[in-house]
Each structure stands twice: as C-alpha cells, then as structure tokens.
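Sync notes, pocket subgroup
Present: LS, DG
LS reminded everyone that the earlier model was apo-only. Rerun requested with magnesium ion included. Inputs:
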Amino acid sequence: MKKEHAPAENKEGIIVAHYGVAVDVLFAADNVCRMIRVKRNSGHVVGDKVMIQDDILTRLGRSSELSRMDARGGIHIVGANLDVLCIVVSCEPLPPPGFIDRAIVSARASDLHPVLVVNKSDLACFAGYEAAIRKVYHESVKIFTMSAEQGTGLDTLSDFFSEGHRGVFVGPTGVGKSSILNGLLPEIHLTTGEISETKKRGRNTTTVSTLHLLSDGGELIDSPGFNDFGLVDISAHQLSTYFPGFEKAGMDACRFRDCKHREEPACRVIELVEDKQIDRERYTIYLQMLTEVEAMETEPKYRDRRHRRKKN
Ligand SMILES: Nc1nc2c(ncn2[C@@H]2O[C@H](COP(=O)(O)OP(=O)(O)O)[C@@H](O)[C@H]2O)c(=O)[nH]1
Ligand SMILES: [Mg+2]
C-alpha cells in the first residue's frame, strides 16, 4: 500500500490505525494510506468510515459498534462497522472467568457474529482445554483451532474471512492474536510478546488497534489485549436471549416473552436444566450475570455513561 502526503479531496476512506492524535486512513479505491491529524478525544476508532475534504476528517455513520467496560467502569469502543467478533483464547494464558460469555453476549447484542479461536494447539495443555471449550460452546459458535507458531489451522480462518467479513481479534494479552495475523499476512510483522514464565501472562506488546486486509479477502483488526469484557448497555432481556447455551431452548419457547429464566412458570430453559440438557453450572453462571445486569439497569452510576466514553 502506498503512503501519500499531498492533500486528498473529498475522498471516502477507512481508519486502519489510531495513534491518539493521528489516524491512518486507507483509501481503498486507489490503495493509498494517509496519516491525518485528529483531536485527542475525537472518538474515532479503527473501522470508522471517514470523508476527507481540505484535510478535515468527517466520520460517517456506523453500521455497528462494539463496546466493552473495563474494571474501572470506563467504556471502550473495540471497533466500528464490524460483522464478526473473533474471540481468541489459549490454555496458556487462560482467559479470565466469564470473558468468553461476555464477549459472545456483547457481540450478539451489537449484531456481530461471534466466533472462537483456540490457539496454541501445539501445547500439551491444548487437548483438554479445547475439549472443555467445545463441550460448552459447540452449539453456539463456530470454533477454529490453530497453532500460529506452527502455522497450522490458519487456512480455515482465512477461508471464513474470505467470504467478506470484517472482524476484530479480542482476547487477553499473550494468547497469540498478533502471531495469528502475522501467520495470515507474513509481510506485516506485527510485534509479538514473550510470555513471562512466572506470571504465565503475556506482556502487552500490541499498543494500537490496526486493521489489515487479508490476501484472500476480508479484513481483520488486531487489538491490544485486555482482560475485562464488562457488559455495556445490555438488558436482562438481551442476556436471557443471547447467553451461549440457551439457543437450544428456542426463541419464544417460554410462556412469557420477557422470561428471565429465573423462577417463571413454564420456562423452557429451567426445564432443560432439570432435564440435564443445559448444564447446571452454565445456568448458575447465567444467573450470576443476570443479577449483575439487573443491578446495572437500576444503578444510577451506570445510567449516564456518555461522559466516560473513551475511544478504543
Ligand atoms: N506455543 C505457542 N506459542 C504461541 C502461539 N502463538 C503465539 N505464541 C506465542 O505467544 C506469545 C504471545 O503472542 P502474541 O502474538 O504477541 O499474543 P497477543 O498478545 O495475543 O498478540 C509469543 O511469545 C508467541 O510466540 C502458538 O500457536 N503456540
Ligand atoms: Mg498483540
């Protein structure tokens, strides 16, 4: 891709990297990338479609936006105009409890298609971990397994994206997000990190989100790792509809349309738990998340979050 410095007029592009006070904009029509200055808290994120005129950048409307909350209540937009959320996990380091469920619920609530990537298939801990992941999620999401280190399993992910998807990698630092992208696009050389032997956690080497065009089609955003995937603006009704594992109950199978699957009569989810078709442990996790979401719905500090919105 060429880098251009002369002003471009009235062109539509897409933000492919964000550096705080500047963004890289890719003009797909002529495959040229330009760096444009922006205000520090401009609110632009990678994936945003923009219009440039006289060096002024205007953001166009978003078709989708995926947000998460960090442990301090700060809201981050993970990416814009995406249709896929790629949740990357590994058996070392492990994702924090609840990370996958929250990511799946958030994706579905934002109209994104969540998929799971289980990386590091070369490690001894992989087989047991993958089996556990499949047991819980195989009916809910597509699961890709791979080893970025050995270059195996990457083709299936690239085939999936070649259908024309735009996705973002999310997952804790050290699971191999950047390594997978390097495997898909060897010419990009993203910085990857060492895993600390004592903490078994990755060091944060990816500091900005960057969007990459895959050679066979589709686009993928590499993002800095994070451990908190707090739910943002998710209602109890959305959670009861989107929780992974409840798909088998079917839409509107409960007597009440707004059934929260807690103690309502003729609740299909509760029936399936009693029938052992939904794992009781999964149901308990759901109830914990439900209590949390209900608390957020009534908690004033969560109601007006606009002032605490952050980019990325
Ligand atoms: N054994 C093994 N190590 C991997 C694999 N993929 C990445 N790693 C290593 O895991 C560490 C973190 O990788 P990185 O791509 O920076 O992770 P990120 O923080 O998710 O972007 C690096 O030391 C990689 O070499 C894999 O498939 N197998
Ligand atoms: Mg990285």
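DG: The chain has a mean pLDDT of 89.
LS: The two ends are 24 Å apart (CA to CA).
Action: DG to write up.
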